[in-house]
Structures are given as C-alpha cells and as structure tokens.
Amino acid sequence: MQILMKRRTTGALLFTALCTAHLCPTQLSAQDVLVQASKIVVAYGEGSTAATVLTDSALLLRDGKIAFVGADIPAEARRAARVVDYGKATISPGFVLAATTLGRDADLAEGALAFTPDLRAAEAFDPWQKELAQLATAGVTSFGLAPSPRNVAGGIGALAKAGKKQGRIETAEAFVGFSLTRAARSQERMPTSLMGALEMLRDSFKTARVGVQVGPDLAVLRQVMSGQRRALIHADTFAELNGALDLAKNFNFAPVIIGARDADKVMAKLAERGVGVVLAPLNPKARIADLELPKKLAKAGVPFCFAGRPDQLRFSAALAVRYGLDRNVANAALTRTPANLIGALTTVGSLRQGCGADFVVFEGDLLDLGSRHVATWVDGENLHGESPAGAKTSQTTNSAGGR
Amino acid sequence: MNHSLLRIAIVCTTIAIPALGQDLVAIKAKTIHTITGPSIQDGVILLQNGRIKTIAKASDVEIPWSATVIDASDKIVMPTWVLAHSSGGMRGSNESMQNVPWLTVADAIDPASTYFEGMLRNGVGTVHVLPGNNTLLAGSGLVVRPFGRTVEDMTVAANTGMKMSLLARGGSRLQKIREMRRAIAEIREYLANFHREKAEFEKEQAAGAIPEDKKWEKEIDRKKQAAVDLIEKKLKGWLYVPSFAELDEALRMGKDLDLNFVLGANLDEAMPLLTKLKAAVVLDDALEYFETDPETRKEKQYCSAKMLADAGVPFALSLASSGPSSYPWWQFGTCVRNGISRQQALEALTMVPAKMLGLSDQIGSLEVGKLGNIQILTGDPLQATTWVDTVVLEGAVVYERSKDPRLKYLFEAAKKADEPKATSKKDEGK
Amino acid sequence: MTRPIVQVLLQASVTLLLTALATAQQEVTAYTNAHILPGGKPTISNATMVVSGGKILALGGADVKVPDGAKVIDCKGMTITPGLIDASFQSSNNQQDLNEQSEEVTPHLRILDNIDPEDPLFRRARNNGVTAVHIMPGTRNVIGGLGCVIKTYGSDPKSMVIKADASMRIVMGAEPSNGNRAIRGGRVNSMYYRRPTSRMGVIWSVRRAFYDAKEALTKTQGAPGDAPPSPGTQIMMQVLQGKLTAVTTARSEQDLRTALRIAEEFGYETVIDEAQDAYMVADELAKKNAVVMLGAPSAETISGSAAQDGSAPRSGTVAVLASKGIRFVITTGTNPSALPLIREAMFAHRFGLGPQLALDAITIEPAKLLGLDDRIGSLATGKDADFVIWSHNPLDPAAVAVSVHINGMSVSQPR
Amino acid sequence: MTVIEAGTVHPVSGPEIKNGVVVIRGERILAVGQQGELELPPNTKVYKFPNGHIYPGLIDASTDAFADAGLRSDGSLNGGSKIADGLMWTDSRDDHLIEHGITTAYISIRAGSQLRGQGAIVRPRASGFDLWEDREQAALQLLMTKGPGASHALQRQSQLEAIGRLFDGLDKFREAKEKYEEELEKYETDFEKYLEYHAKKNGKDKEKGKPNGDKAKKEESKKPAEAKPKADGSEPAGRRRGGRRGEGRPPRGGGAQEMSAETFEKTLATIMALLGKPKTETPTTGSQDPKPQGRSGDRATATPTRSPTKSGGDKAKKGEGPKRPKYPKKPRPDPQKEALLKVLDGELPLRIEAHRVDELLAALRLQRDKEIPVVVLERAYGADRVTRKIAAQGATVVLTDVLPNSLGVPGDKRNPYSKFDPTALPKKLNDEGIPFAIASGTARLASLLPMMAAAAIGRGLSEDAALRAITLTPAEILGIAKDTGSLTREKFADVIVTDVPLFASDSRVLLVVAKGRTEYEAK
User: Fold this and answer.
1) pLDDT at D326 > cutoff 90
2) pLDDT for the residue C9
3) Which residues of C touch A253 (CB under 8 A)?
4) What pLDDT digit, counting tens, does each position of C191-211 carry?
5) Confidence band for D152, pLDDT divided at 50, 70 and 90
6) Contact D504/A288, CB-based, under 8 Å?
7) Partner residue opposite A134 with nearest CB, options D411, D459, D504
8) How much is the mean pLDDT over chain B?
9) Can you say how many angstroms the Cα of residue D155 is from the centroid of all Cα atoms in its chain?
10) Subunit contact B422:C298, Cβ cutoff 8 A
11) Positive or negative CA dihedral for B36, B38, B40, B43?
C-alpha cells in the first residue's frame, strides 16, 4: 500500500516508507497509552437519555483506536501502557463538524455543470492544507468534507480527520450533497431560479427511478433513494425547505437539511418525517428567534447539530445554551448527532470500544466559555495543548500564525 | 405636447370670466355643509361683492332679481378646501444654498402651472405655498388662491410664515440640528448687538457726547428682517419635521419660536412625544405606512392621522401632486378607515388649516361675512364617485367640470365609443 | 428498507385521524341581518348566511332560519361579499426567482415551487379581503411557465392550491428581451448573449415554440416509437388542444393586436393580461370575444421594468370595455404601485363602471375566467365559505374588511 | 429600606461572602455583610434568593444603545457634536439594557472621520434612560485607525499626522477667547469713563454745544452697508467656494468661504489705498457676503480704510479726553476647539480607538507630545505587544469583541486582524497590571457581556479580575467609581441578582435594582 505522497511545499510527493522510518523510529512498535481523568464522558445520550459517564477512570488507546474503556482494561495492558493523567479535568468525545468545505469552496464546486452528483469530494481533499491546523485548537476532531452549495447536486462527501502533520480521509464516500440555496442559482448557467433547480432534481430522480440503464450520476441518486447514502440538502428559505422536503417525500428518502434558516416555518414536517438539521453557526447579533431555533428544534424532537466555521462550533453551542437549549442536547449536538446525521456513528462521535481515539479535555463544563481547553487528541495523538505527564509533544498550532 | 396646449386652454377661459365679485350671486343647493354650523337642506347662499351675505333655507330667502343664479339644486355645496402647507406651483422649490431666509416664494410662483389647475379640479380654494424641505431657513411663503393671471391677483395673504426644515440629506442629522441652532443663535446675536448699539447711542446722547438733534436712523439689515421677525415671534415659522428622530429637537425649538410643525411619516416611535404638541400640526400627504418589526418580521400598518387624533392633537391634511393621495375624498376615506370621525376629517381640510394660517375669519367655512369660496360637488365629499362640478372663488365661477381639458383627455375614449350608454347610470340595470 | 414502509402506514393513520376530527366537531355559524352582495345576483338586505364545515349551507333573506345550536354573529349595518379573487397577482419574490432565465421559453416550470404562505403580500391581500389569487411566473421570459390558483391562507402551498396548472403565461412586447445582448463578436462571457434582443425576436420565439408543438402534435399520431416530446412542448400541445388556457401579457396597442393575431394563427384561446391600451382595440377584442384581465385601473403611470412597454393608461378604459360588452376582470397586475384590489374596483366605479359590475369584476367574473365558479366567486349553497364582512359598502373609500373568512375560518382581524 | 439576601455576594471591593445580605436605604447602599448580623427595621422589603448570586450592577464601557440607525450612520460628527443630543428611547430590543443587568453605560457612535463627537454616560431604565448628571459630555472620541482593510503603513502615518494638526491652533483660540473677555470688561469701564467725562463736560459748557465731528463720523461709518432691496435677494451671491452647483449642501469648510470675502476686502482696500483714492467711507460691499450674520456690517468697520482716520483723530485733539471705545469682536464659537481645550486641561478624557500596534504607538506618542492627561485606548487588539509603554504612560484600555475568534477566521491571510486573539488579551493586560474594561462594543451584544468575561476566563484570566473588568474598572475609567462599580457603603444601590454564577453560559438575571429602585424582576 505504497502511497506516493509529496512533501507539501507546492504539492510535491513524499515516499511514505522513507518518511516514517526517518522521522519517528519509535512508532513501529506503538506502545499503548492509558489516559486517566476524574470524569470521562463515553457518549452523550440521544434526545433525553442521559450520557454514560465514568468517574476517576481511564481509557486504553491502541493504534489510534480505543481498545478498552474503564473497568475492562486488562491489568497487564494497564501496566505496560504509557500513562497520561489529566487529574481534575473532564474528557469528552471530540467535536464532529457535520459538513464544511474548510474554506476551499472553489475546489469543491464544479463550475460548468450544476448537476454533478458522482464527483467525489475526497479527491479535492488536500491533507496538508493549513485550515486543518485550526481544527485541533477548536476541539474538532473529525469533519464531513462536503461539496460546495454552489452546485444543485455537488457530489459525494467524505469523512476526514486532521493529523499531527497531515490530515487523512477516514471514509471516502459518506454522504451526497445537494443545494437549493441562492448560491446554487446565482451562477450563469441552468438553473437560475428555484423552479428550475427543483425541476432539474425532480427530472433526474424520476429518470433514475424508472430508467433501465443509467449513468454513474443517476446511480448515486439510486443509492440515495435506496437509503444506502444520506442526502444532505442545503436549503434556507421556506420555499427551498418545502421543495426539499416534498422532493424527499416523493422519492422516499430521509434527507438532512443544511442551513434551515426558516426551520420554524416547517417544524411540524421536520419532526413528523424525522429529518435531521445541520444549522449554520449562531451569529450573536442575529434575531432572538434565530438564536432560539436550537431550543425549538430540541423541543420538537428534531435531531440537529452545528456546522460551518470550526472555530465557532463550541461558541454556537454555548450561545444556544444561553438562549434556552438543554445542556445534554447541546453536548450531543457537538458530538453524537453530527456523526449520526452523516452516518459515521460507529467510528466517531463517542469513546466506545472500537471508535477512533478522538477526545477533548476541558477543566469544567465545556459549554461554559470560562472552562479552559486543556488538550485535543486525534487518533491517539495529542494535537493541541500540553499532555501533563508525558514529554511536551510537538503541538501542531495553537499560537497564531499557522505552522 | 399636452402641457403647453393645456396652459393655453386655461388662459383663454380666464379672460372670458367677468371681473371678480362685483355683483350679487345666488347658489341654490340640495345640501349645504357649512362645516362649523348645521347642514342645510335645499338652501340658498347669497354672495355680495365676493362675500357671503346670507345662508338660509330656500323657503325663507328671497333672491333679488339682479343676482346671477347658479342652480345646484341636485348637488352638495361646501366651502373650498384649504391647504396649510404645499410647495407646488413653483418652477423650483429649493434654493441651492442652505441659509436663505430673505427669499420669498412670490418670485417663483407660476400662475399658469398645471398644479393650480389640479387644485381647482379637486376643489381647493386656498393654498399656502412655501419653499421646499431641502434648505435650513428657506424663505417666506404666501397664501394664494389657485386662480389668477398674476401673483398679485392670486395673493390672499403675505408674510404668513418662514419655512424651516430639519430634513438632513445624506445622513447628517446632528449636523443639520447644529446648523439650525447656530443660524438662530447668530440672528439673536445680531439683534442683541443692534439693540446694544442703540442703547449706547441713547446713553451717549443723554451724556451729551452726541448732539440732541441727531436721530438714530440705523435700522435692521433688509436681508435679515424676515429672520429677525421670526426670532421676535412677529413671523410664524413652518418647521418640517421629517420623522420621529427630529421631533425632540423641534419641540425644543418650539419653546422659543412661534412654530407650526409639518410632520413627515414614521412617527410611531415618537408616540409619547406627540402628546406634548400644543398647537395644530400639518401632516404629510402619505398618511399610511407599513413598518416591519425586525425581530418578529411581522408587518404593521400605521396611520399618522390616527396617532395624532389619539394624542388629541388637531391636524391638517395635505394633498400629493399625483397618485391616489392627491384626491381629498381618498384622504378623507383613509382617515375614516383608520377610526377618525367624519367631522374631524372634514375639518382637517377646512377650519384647522384656516386657523393655522390665521385666516379663520375669512375662509374655512360657510358663514356670513366670510369670503365666497364655494365648491359644488356632484355627491357626498367622502364618496369615491363624487366629482367637483363648479368652483366659485370670491363670488366668481373659476372652474367648471364640463370645460376641464384634462378630464376630457382622460375620458375621451368614453366619448369616442358610439353609443352614449357608457355612463354609469346605464350599468345600474345590468 | 423497512423504514419508509412503516412511515407510510404511520402517515396514513394520522391523516385519517385528522379528517375524523374535523367532521366530528362540525361547527355551524350563522351570520344574521347583514346586507349581502352574493355576486352575480341582486343584493339581499338583512339576510342570513349559515356556514359550516368550510361550505355555505344556506343563504337568503327572512326565509332562512338559523339552525339551533349554531353560533350566531350579528352583522347589523355591515355588508358581506364573496371573497375577492385577484386574477393576476404579483408575489414578492424578486425578479430572479420569478423566471428561469437560462432559457427564454420554459413552458413547463411551475410558479407553485416559489410560494411562501407567510409572504407579507399575501397577508396584505388577505387584510383587504382577497381570498384567492391566480399567480403566474414573471414577465422576464417569453413563455414563463405554468401559473396556479391558490387561496391566500394556508400552512403549506400544497394545501392552498385550488387549481394547480391554471394557465401558461406568454409575454408580448420588448420586456423579455431587455436583458439579452446581441452576439457581435468580442467576448461572449455570459448566457445572456442570445436571442431575442428585439420585439420581433420575442414574437419569433413564440411562433417557433408553437410551431414545434404543432409539429409534435402531428408527429405523435404518426410514429409512436420516437422519443417523447420535451416537457415544455407537451405543455404547448395542451394549449393548442385547448386543454390549458394561455394568458398573454400585452400592454400597448401593438402588442394587443399581435397577441390576437398569434392566437388566431395557431388557433388557441387566449386571455389578455394588463391590456392598458384595450380601449384602442376594443372593437377587435369584442369581435374575438376575448377576455381581458385589466391591470390596476387606478394607476396613472406604469412603473417597474414594464414601463418600456406600457402606455399612458386612460381612466375611461373600464367604461369602454363595459359598454362594448367585452368580458373583463380587474386585477392588481404587475404594477408595483397598484392599490389593494377593492380600491382598484372603487376607482373603476369612480371612472364610470356600475357598482354591481365593479364588484362582479373582482368576484364571480375571475372565478368564471379561471373555471372555478363552481367552488368560489360567489355566495351560494354548497360553495366554499370564502367571504368578507365589510364595515361599509365595499366601494366606499372608508370601507374596512372587518373580518375575512377562508373555508369558513376567520383568517385575519386587521383592525 | 430594601434588603436582598442571597447564597453568595460578590462585592468586588472585598472577598466573596457566603449567605450574604445587601441593605439599601433610599438610593445608596447602607451595608453589606453576613445574613443575621444586622437587625432590620420593621417595614423593609426583603428579597430572598437562597442559591442566587448578588453582583454589583454591570457597567458597559462602550456601547451604542439608544441610538437609532440614522444617528449610527451620521457621517457629520465632529469634535463639537454632543451624542446626548441625538439619543432616543425607541423601545427596540437594543434599548433594554437593564434586563441584562447593565445599570450604567457609556454611549458613543462609530461614525464620522476623525473626531467622532463626545460620548455620554447614561443610566438605562425599565423604559427610557437618564443621563448621568454632569457626564453628558463624558469623553471625546478620536478615531486613529484605518480599520481591518489592508492599508499601507505610510497611509496610516499621514492620518496620524493629520490628527496631530487638530491640536495646534488651540492656544491661539484660547488666547483669543481670553483677550475677548478682557477687552469686554475694558470696553465697559472705558465706556463708563467716556460717558462721565462727557456728562461732566456738558454740565460745564452747556452753552458751547461744540459739534463733535469725529464721533459722528465714527457713528456714521458704523452704518451697515446699504443692502440691495430684498426682492432681488436671489442675485448670485459672492464667489461660491466648494460645494457643487444645484447641490443643496452648504459649501464644505464653511469657514473657507468667509475667509475669501475678508481677504478680498483687504486686497480691495489696499489697492484703494495704493491708488490714493480720497474716498474714506467703506467700499460698497460689491462682494455681497451671503453670510446672514450681521458680520458684514461689523467687518466693514474693521477694514483698514477706517483706521487711518481714527489714528489721525487721536493726534489732532490730544487734550479732548477719552475717545469712544470700540466694541471688541466676538471670536467665532468653535465647540470642537473648546472640547480639545478641555481634553488638554484633563477635564475631558480622550478616547482613542486604535487597533494595530503602530496605531497604538502613534496614540501613545500623541499623548506624550500633547501631554494629554487622561487617555483611554479603545479596542486595542494589538495591545499585548505595547503593554510596557501603556503601563508607563498610565493609559487605560477598553476591550470589545472579547468573543472566540470574533475578528475573523484564524490564519486567514487576507484578513490582517485574524492574527489578533481578543480573548487572550485580557490575561496579558492583567498580568502587566494595566487597568482594562471589557465592553460590549454594540448594543446588540449587551446581553453577552458576562459571556465575554467568561471567554477571557477561559483563556487564563482569574474570575475576580474578570468580574472587576465589567464592574469596578469601567467605573474608574469613566470617573464614576465613587458612586458605583462595587457593593460598598454609600455607593449607589446598583445591585443585580442571577440564578447561577454570572459566568455560566445559561446565567439569567433575576432582579435588577438601580439607585434603590427595582427596575427589572424576572417573571
């Protein structure tokens, strides 16, 4: 599995074998890591169910995954592992960013055609791009790389993670991105109006459902209709939301709406059809009705999470709590729900056995801005913040100015 | 094309009318609304030398044989409307410099303007023409009658007020307030300086430094006379208050100047301040406006006339130059629709503006001794189907609907259709 | 796979429950001693109207007795009229969403996708007594697409629709070609470098669209194996076969004559929209017994992007149309400075139209024009309970819609 | 008498008190202490919050509440404009500061080029607001930044020089004012002496009745220039200086036009003198000065052509006694210069809005060069690199935008402000001992003031320092620390109560008492 990777100054290639041998010789026989803290939240509950919390316990990390949790860590593994003790702090699952283009909108939008569902966002992922460095500082451990909302059917999104030196793709084909917002309609090509966009999608879904032999793009639509792939649809105004929900009802698939600014106008439909919502980060200067939208979504039982700029994720959750959202739902909105909405619940979003070793460490409740962000670990490596016991691992970037 | 044509039409009609108000005129009417008194059914109004001599029921008035009789026995007779503030009828209503108190509209009124023709068509008998809203101290206005060959013919009253405005163009409201305060302070300073010099002259004379026979012959600079009269409350000020934001400053200025306010739109935020208005105010022609609450995005409709009526402040209406709000019946309908009584709406175009202009003894209602400004309507003034049939100004017929060129142009199509049954009576039956 | 099926079952039961609920508590309301203008029929004074379940049960003078247990509302001194119908209504989307501008001829696109029930213009219309409107795509395309008739109140556009594909809009005049630029060499960097760029070009696009449709009509009888005609052409074929009414927006005299000529040339029925210069072509309209949807009679000028095609509207137009016996309705049309519909009718009444004709032109006539006079447009037993209670006679400038009812439900208490 | 009891009291001026109580009498705080320590007179109103927290009323050191959109975009602000003139209560969401626990706020507007008016200290009320008595003009706002757009260092340098020029010419203005005062008194006394002399003289030679030509001429020359008849007042006024034709705006730099008329008359007078014209009375003001003030009359008297005759008069009639004094010319009022003078005297603090490091250095240099006693730096994002200088010069800092990444996406090269970290700045200033306040910056964020302090705590600032930064320190910066800012005896009774600690995300204000009056009570 020799991947030719180039050292990233102008996108040059790097020979992996040569690189790993030279840089970190100790990596070969990876030693287990035992992380201890006074409070460990393994996973936040869905809706009103409580979170599973361990007090004064530990996690055993092996090869970037969580091998054992709490009581069932075997004794000899506990002795052999390198111990990292965070004392009074709280360890909780790393934040998951449901859908973002990480500032590379142009790379993730095919300009000529509006309908390109079979393009793969993973191919536009640049593992060395500098925006990855900001993720660890913001506590984000994994994110859904979504196609840009500038295309009516943008393509297939991927689940990716930041790494110590470079990011990597966790799952190449996670969900399919659609968009009915104004961004998709203000390009100088078909469609220029919402009528045109909806007609294009209705037409394509109809031919995908009825057609005998179809091309790769309509095959993706078939996977969506069969429920194999989640459909994430950008929609903001009432007309867009209504169009998206009717489209999903006609062709029988459960969409996830991204943006949903006027969600309170279609709250009943969202709740009734079990549609998930990915909200844009809350703007502190917005209307009170917009700031109370998370509370209303929670009351109606609509699963939701935040996306967009990674550095505003935790602040959005804190603002939502200030405007009435229940704390458990807010915590879930940062970790479990986004993983669930993009169909990656088994790998990220919680600290169960077998999940990735992605967690954040805070002194106090992470929803209060006053609690200090101690550290962020991704795939068993400490990317941000000092690890108290071991040697000061090389931080990626938390001071300003990038690398 | 049609403007010049219409103007010629007006000029030739005026020549044909006999000299104004020399003799006796009698008007027989189905109903006479006097505004101040009770309405009279089948009444007669007798005019002598342009003034109302008697108003009474037809039965107890004996029409002299020499009187020219206007038969309006199936129509409604009312006093003509009075507009307390308007800046129409002038070639340009704003001077380019901000502080020009010495100007007067007398130099700018164009007697042949179609604006005055529009006034007659709507039954307006008296218009107070003032400069526009774009300057600080804009000069003095003139009360005119919308009919006459020269400005002197049209003038009813002069020196009726100095136009001031707080309208800040290009978002500089504080600067406009500052400039207004400075302009008034400078005039006060000039006046104080003048009086000080006069006092010192008298003291010197008393002390003998100046011989007795020398008199004090220095008087106020002609260019500042109007502004000084304003400061000394000899001249009324007409202050345009664009919105709620300037009302506070206007009330402050109202304490030391004799001001009438002309209120713009968007007054809902200043609801508590409205109760502080003592005198009557003039309202802009746009009476209703929508406002969207940024938080709930719900739209709410406001009516400035209703707000003033609730605050107990008498108000006068104005008419736009075009569009629905240029018709009096539409403005009355808007007021009644928003909960204002019919009488208060009618007074808003008759007695209230007359009082504001200080001419309530001359115009504003049909009473003995007042000017014979009368309009004859085809129906109730608050009905949409009512047209102004004839306008009599000071005893002389100045407008007749049958000879109106503009209405002919608008309804020409109806004439061209061959059978005459296009009129409304025919449709009744269908 | 099982999830969707479970969902369908669940939904079915829910809707069953709802309808049961609605019929159970069948509320009966009676509006007594009101002055009723039923529309199309003479006025009934101190009449009673009984409404229940969204329909009108009974209507009449003294002979109608109030069923016991009914909620009685005394409307002394007030007037009840049918809910007003605006046959050409402009919702508040900005121009970009009213037309699909990637092509000039898009007959198959539906404006229904754009409807937002909480659009402030719907609320204003409701507050002024309008209960149903006919919305068409914008006037930026030569053939804009399919309009629909909806009620002005509802939680979801689908529930508001009375008639889904009510009309297809064709626009005459220079307006559709305004944004296009001729391809005269040089950089062609936008899709707006295309035909038509002139009035002739616009009429050519219409003619070609109809020609293709005629061609497709003759061909389908021939070889069934060919590819089916494009969705746009299918709509044009319905127009040619008379199954779908075409609404042609034409303002100036020249456009009106062209509209009538094209309709005659391809043999389809058309309704003329806006028609400011109708009084100049009154005789031809009468001869072809065309129906006119007159835009904003009160407007003294045409504003907005249509000003280029507009002509100076004449107040006497309504009287001419009435006297020539031309069927017409009064609408607010595309003029942004149009007054509420009831005021437009009032101005028409002022300019010489009889009161009964003025009210019919905004109630029963548009219902007949849209083919919905069996459900809405007038007050009669069995029809939808869409009605308005006015404070005065509706053509009085001081008249206010005290309460507006759609399907028997009071949807707005404006004051 | 009102008593508020709660689980914990945070007086800011002292340590935290468990189960504390605050006793209020009239407008002032009577006592703060442990529950049960003080006996209470019978008719006291008692509020009990068993697990609530009592804090002093929050103070927002920089906001733009009570200003409607028109005022917030009023580009015409200069040093002389008083923001208090334009403030209005419009019951909009932004005006309800009291519900967020803010009992005192400093209002300033971010519009206008350099000097942006004089801010005001207000006390928000349940409906409406009161201006703090003598603090309607609380500080002079000065803009010393080009904003986040990319701007060349030289550009910023030239802007800073322009600001320096504002201050010169002040002493000349002050002298002119003082000179005018002295001349006025001298004029009064001279005029009295002059009258007595003549009264005495007339008493002696009643019969001589000597005509006194000199004074008459002086009187006559004071007659203002004969103005044209009013009717043609619209003939084109003097040369238009600035301002496009037909554009109603007053000519820019109003003073410039007046200058040109004056120089025009001087040059005309000198030419007349050179030509040896015998005519002595004032030239008919051909250049009719459109300025309405009577100045043309006065200035005519002051033109040089007059002076030769006056001096001539003195010599000839030496023994005649005191001549008639001349009324001094009143200098043009200039509110901006008066405000700048007050700044130099230290009565009015100067608030300088500077963001980047070089702008901060320039502000500090301005303070040194012009010896401005009280300077407050606003929004100083780059302050952590100039802390020593700030501490040395005793300037204080008002920080806004203290929210996570509020200045832009970190690491975004196009945005020069993305390298600033506003939430980490408070800790660094606190370590250097520089007094700083955390403010909302705009009325819309007033409800997030506690959250901003929490964000600073999250980056290492201690809780007490954070609480002080939104209560006592802003009071000190605004100069009202003796009346408010902490729960101490004899201070105004500005007290707020929250259900959970103030810095928790979901803390809610339960009760607000301002000056002893209950302004807000959560339902």
Assistant:
1) no
2) 60
3) 4
4) 777 778 888 888 999 999 999
5) confident
6) no
7) D411
8) 86
9) 26
10) no
11) negative
Domains along chain C?
A: 84-376 (3.20.20.140)
Sort out which chain D residues have CB atoms less than 8 A from B249's CB and list them: 85
- The pLDDT of residue C307 is above 60: yes
pTM equals 0.84
- Listed by number, the residues of chain C in 173-232 with a beta carbon closer than 8 Å to a beta carbon of chain B are none
From the list A196, A237, A243, the residue facing C100 with the nearest CB is: A196
A252 interaction partners in chain C (CB closer than 8 Å): 4
Whether residues A130 and D455 touch (CB distance < 8 A) is answered with no
Nearest CA in chain C to A192: C100
Chain D residues inside the 8 Å CB shell of B188: none
Pick from C92, C259, C88: nearest CA to C171: C259
Chain D positions touching B103 (Cβ under 8 A) are 233-234
Q: Do B174 and D215 touch (CB under 8 A)?
A: no
CA of A186: which chain C residue's CA is closest?
Answer: C96
Q: Which domain holds residue B390?
A: 2-80+363-416
Subunits close to C (at least 3 CB pairs below 8 A) = A, B
- Tell me how far apart the alpha carbons of residues C295 and D136 are, in angstroms, rounded to a whole number: 57
Q: Which residues of A touch B294 (CB under 8 A)?
A: 287
Cα distances (angstroms) measured from residue C274 to each of C199, C248, C252, C253, C344? 18, 9, 9, 11, 13
Query: For residue A325, how many other CB atoms are within 10 A of its CB?
Result: 27
Tens digits of residue pLDDT in A233-269: 999 999 999 999 999 999 999 999 999 999 999 999 9
Enter the ipTM.
0.84
Residue A4's domain comprises: 1-30
The string of pLDDT tens digits covering residues C100-118 is 888 889 999 999 998 999 8
Interval A113-138 mean pLDDT: 90
Give every CB contact of residue B124 below 8 A, 6+ residues apart in sequence. Answer: B80, B81, B82, B83, B146, B319, B328
In this predicted structure, the answer to whether residue B286 has a pLDDT above a threshold of 60 is yes
The percentage of chain A sitting over the pLDDT mark of 70, rounded to a whole number, equals 88
A193 and C98 in contact by Cβ < 8 A?
yes
> Which residue of chain D comes nearest to A325, CA vs CA?
D506
> Of the ranges B413-422, C21-30, C43-52, D263-272, which one carries the lowest mean pLDDT score?
B413-422
Residue B209's domain is classified under what CATH number? 3.20.20.140
- The nearest CA of chain C is from the CA of B29 a distance in Å of 23
| Residue in D55, D46, D47 with CA at minimum distance from that of residue D8 | D55
Q: How confident is the model over A271-299, as a mean pLDDT?
A: 94
How far is B266 from B285, CA to CA, in rounded Å?
13
pLDDT over 70 (residue A29):
no
CB B112 within 8 A of CB B146: no
Please, which residues 351-390 of chain B have a Cβ atom closer than 8 Å to chain C? 382-385
Instruction: Please indicate whether, in this complex, the C-beta atoms of B269 and D330 are within 8 angstroms of each other.
Output: no
Q: Is C102–A190 a contact, with Cβ atoms under 8 angstroms apart?
A: yes
Does residue B210 sit at the D interface (CB-CB below 8 Å)? yes
Q: Determine the distance in angstroms separating the CA of C68 from the nearest CA of chain B, rounded to an integer.
A: 36
The two three-digit tokens of residue B411, written as one number: 């309804």
What are C388's two structure tokens? 């308005």
* CATH code matching the domain that covers D1-57+485-523, chosen among 2.60.120.280, 2.60.40.1180, 2.30.40.10, 3.40.190.10: 2.30.40.10
**How large is the average pLDDT for residues B151-157?**
91
Shared-domain flag, residues B207 and B356: yes
Mean pLDDT of C212-241: 82
Quick one: fold of D61-170+336-483? TIM Barrel (3.20.20)
Task: Please compute, for residue D263, the number of CA atoms within 13 A of its CA located in the half-sphere on the CB side.
Answer: 7
Lowest mean pLDDT among B156-165, B189-198, C148-157, D289-298: D289-298
Cis peptide before C196 (omega within 30 of 0): yes
Length reported for chain C: 415
